[in-house]
Design brief:
By secondary structure, this protein is α/β, with parallel strands linked by helices. The protein has 22 helices and 16 strands. A seven-stranded parallel beta sheet has the order 10-11-12-13-14-15-16. Strands 2-4-7-6-5 form a five-stranded mixed beta sheet, with helices on both faces. The model has no long low-confidence stretch (mean pLDDT 94). 2'-deoxyguanosine-5'-triphosphate binds next to α10, α12 and α13.
Length: 568
């Protein structure tokens, strides 16, 4: 994680703590503003001489930033964090609880962490608070149950930067010949229990010392000569295993998993009178493995093609006749769901277009929020009309990319859309997404989404379930019913690449592809760096066995436009 990102997270946390404590809004906003500025900053903050020259960063924030860059800690931050109970920030993860409510729960009902929140619900203390109706408490209870089963796993987009930062540092240790991440991270799962790093080195002691004494380590959990575990300050566990260079391929295969995939491989080896473990593939009776082998060679010795890590889940990959060529990041030619400053994005149309050109896209869609999304500055009809003109003008003036005039129109709970058809018909592309009533019944959700799929002007259903990983379950529609409607009406279902969403999820993506419906992989970018989220969408798409031909974002320019026009 970059210093900019680290500092931004700290300023966001300070804003939250201030808001929980009931500080005045001005102070809260000042911290949010600094956090946003840091997120948007292209240069590394540590390389900027005088931080106060950056607009949005005042003297006192600048001093805090300077202190953090120089010492690795920030006294104002530590003080603020310790001004509220230890476990209170975790309560913020409960869906529907914002800082103000959490502050009230703390001050008026003695809630200091998740367990005491549960207690307050059970003994009826919560109900006594103003504006705590039965329905609200029911929602909190459901969210708590959800958190209990999911929250100890980190989101993919949190784990990946932590792992990459460690790899970058450890790679430089003397003697290291091979180092990579394995486990669920290599398989691209949406959440990661712990990060597994695998290395071969001539100097294990140097590597292990560097690993355990890294500045990001909070605690060394176990330390041996070939295996260590640490917990990093951001809360994740990392396991490091040092293996012999000769056995690296076998170890990589073993520690990538999944466990279920490994078990079938091992059985297959036994059937062929061989033995497979993390040290290699052996002829039965032989204990020595004197030829180093790669993953490819081991699969091949078992008469199998190399299986991409993302599909090593015992979901038919070992009995499948031919593994399809899974979609890759370079296959993606356009992004069809992005926001600008017209709604809640931070890029102008021009900036959005230039970032898309940089990514090598042939097309970018401007799809700002619709009128119901008040908190996201959604566009009323007259503003949308002007926005369409502005997009068309930008499309005329900017070379090297097609800029589509679109919308991300809300799908109301009853399945109707948030703009009239007359207005929608003026657009090049329509993404329709559910944002409200995300706890309606599965039946209602299915009807709602199918109505949008069947709408003749809708191209893509954006983040169809509205789930937020580790936080909100979202809608639970009948996916097979959506897929067959989507196929019939040539409407694409989105895999939203944002790592909080990854919606549709891997198994749903597979249902879309196998059912012959179209898949869209979009970043839903609100800021330039959001385009980087595409990697998580691709990992998830691969876990769903998606190929370039399943995905509309892989279409050539003219074919994409022909499909879009077939609707409007
Ligand atoms: P996670 O960390 O919960 O997200 O999931 P993984 O898959 O990274 O699991 P982890 O960290 O417990 O172990 C890493 C890999 O090591 C796992 O994917 C497969 C392999 N492995 C671990 N334990 C066993 C086992 O008991 N049997 C077999 N065959 N493989 C194992
Ligand atoms: Ca793991
Ligand atoms: Ca592990
Ligand atoms: Zn969006």
């Amino acid at each position: 994680m970059s210093t900019n990102t680290e500092l931004a997270a700290m300023f966001h946390t300070m804003a939250t703590v201030l808001e929980i404590s009931g500080a005045n809004g001005f102070k809260v906003n000042a911290n949010v503003k600094v956090a946003r500025t840091l997120e948007d900053l292209v240069e590394d903050i540590a390389t900027i001489e005088d931080v106060t020259t950056i607009q949005g960063i005042g003297k006192s924030s600048a001093a805090k930033i300077k202190e953090y860059i120089e010492t690795g800690s920030m006294s104002g931050y530590d003080e603020l964090i310790s001004s509220i109970p230890n476990g209170l920030l975790a309560v913020m993860n409960v869906q529907g609880l914002g800082p103000k409510t959490v502050g009230k729960l703390w001050k008026e009902a003695g809630v200091v962490d998740i367990p005491s929140l549960k207690e307050a619900i059970e003994d009826g203390r919560l109900e006594l608070l103003p504006r705590m109706g039965k329905k609200t408490i029911q929602n909190i209870t459901e969210s708590l149950a959800f958190l209990a089963t999911h929250a100890n796993r980190s989101r993919l987009g949190v784990a990946m930067p932590i792992a990459l930062a460690f790899l970058e540092k450890l790679q430089q240790c003397k003697g290291v010949s091979n180092i990579t991440y394995a486990g669920s991270l290599r398989r691209g799962k949406e959440t990661i229990g712990d990060i597994d790093i695998l290395a071969s080195t001539d100097e294990p002691a140097i590597l292990i010392k560097a690993f355990c004494e890294d500045k990001d380590v909070e605690k060394v959990l176990a330390k041996g000569e070939t295996k260590c575990s640490i917990r990093v300050k951001k809360g994740m566990q990392i396991d490091l295993r040092v293996v012999d260079r000769k056995t690296f391929g076998a170890a990589l295969l073993y520690f990538t998993g999944s466990k279920e995939h490994n078990i079938i491989l091992r059985e297959r080896a036994i059937d062929q009178d061989k033995k497979l473990n993390e040290y290699g593939l052996f002829e039965s009776g032989s204990e020595v493995n004197d030829s180093s082998s790669t993953e490819e060679e081991i699969y091949s010795s078992l008469s199998l093609p190399w299986i991409p890590p993302e599909i090593r889940e015992d979901r038919g990959e070992l009995s499948c006749k031919k593994i399809p060529r899974l979609v890759e990041i370079n296959d993606i030619r356009c992004d069809l769901h992005c926001h600008t400053t017209a709604s809640d994005g931070q890029m102008s149309i021009q900036e959005l277009a230039h970032h898309a050109i940089e990514r090598g896209f042939h097309t970018i869609a401007v799809t700002d929020h619709s009128q119901s999304q008040g908190q996201a500055n959604g566009l009323k009809a007259d503003r949308l009309r002007k926005h369409i003109d502005a997009i068309r003008e930008a499309n005329e003036n900017i070379e090297g990319i097609t800029i589509l005039a679109g919308t991300e129109v809300d799908i109301h709970p009853d399945g109707t859309l948030d703009y009239d058809d007359d207005l929608l018909a003026q657009l090049d592309i329509i993404v329709a997404s559910p944002h409200s009533a995300l706890n309606q019944s599965p039946d209602d959700a299915t009807k709602r989404l199918i109505a949008a799929i069947e709408h003749p002007l809708v191209h893509i259903i954006g983040h169809p379930t509205g789930r937020i990983i580790n936080k909100r379950k979202g809608l639970e529609p009948d996916i097979m019913a959506l897929v067959s409607a989507a196929k019939e009406h040539s409407t694409a279902l989105e895999l939203n690449a944002n790592y909080y969403r990854l919606d549709l999820k891997d198994t749903h993506v597979r249902a879309v592809c196998e059912g012959g419906a179209l898949l869209a992989i979009n970043t839903d970018a609100h800021r330039p760096e959001d385009f980087n989220q595409l990697q998580y969408g691709i990992l998830t798409a691969r876990r769903g066995w998606a190929t370039p031909s399943n995905c509309i974002n892989c279409l050539e320019h003219d074919k994409l436009l022909a499909w879009l026009r077939s609707k409007c």
